[in-house]
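Just wondering, does anyone understand these tokens?
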Amino acid sequence: MKLNKKIITLTMGGIALVLLLVILSTIGSVNLSLGEIFSALINNDNKMVTTIVYKMRLPRNILAALVGANLAVSGILLQSVMKNSLADPGITGVSTGASVMAVIILLLSPAYTSMLPFFAFIGGALACTLVYIMAWKNGLHPGRIVLSGVAINTILGGVISYLSTMHSDKIQSAMLWLNGSLATKTWVDVNMLITYSIVGLIIALFLIRSANVLQLGDDAARNLGFNVNLTRLAISAVAVFLAATATAVVGIISFVGLIVPHIARMLMGSDHKYTIPFSIIFGAIVLLVADTLARTIGGPIEIPVGVIMSIIGGPFFLYLLRRKGSY
């Protein structure tokens, strides 16, 4: 694909994202027209529509876009570091590690809820480190990374189950979060995540050259003057930061960081100069659409978006696992 086509693709994707943020705000238990939305927001002439759109749907859609962008970029950075097309915040244990710390806060120390992103980052970083340690044997092998991630996810999932059982009287408040849901999210949640997202995504853009160099191999990277271990650590830290902060706010949502990077490479090639910006845009679109399905497909009953992504992403993961060279 030529340079101009890639830029056009990114531009069109950005326009599509903005349009979807508005258009999908019309869909829900009460369907609205675009005219009603603009009239209510600009003239404030219909309090009910203003409440539905501004206080309920718009913050939820913006939050979905932020979370999708975070998870997608986290996935493409982890795949770059681990040289594994199956790496993903969920598969590698990052999301579950963040979840353990978040559950501890939600169930045992709810007074510290405002610090959820910080504690989730610590949990995600520890889980990612464990996966690295378990998978390392004369280098990182794709198969060992996946198996190590499965093992860590199983162990941490057991910890979450134990905490849920021991504190069953408080678990209702964490159930939607455990399933990955944007239900009841407000501007407070958007404000909690937006700063972390902007900082993390900007840093990710500054790591484009480093991610590209890692693709050349360790020897080539060293010859170009890069400290390979430090570069891996920096990229991994940003990937964990993006995934953990998103998980802290909305819970466990899997496979966004697996699906989007693959589509990005198919459409934009392997240069992170294009795949990272594309992942920001397309990750936001994927989760925005998935969340709209989650709140409408079940009628009056809302399905957590984490469930929707698992249904979509599970078969996609098995397909990649079966492809020659993926494992």
Q: What stands out?
A: The two ends are 27 Å apart (CA to CA). The chain has 14 helices and no strands. Residues 3-322 form a domain with the ABC transporter involved in vitamin B12 uptake, BtuC fold (CATH 1.10.3470.10). The chain has a mean pLDDT of 86.
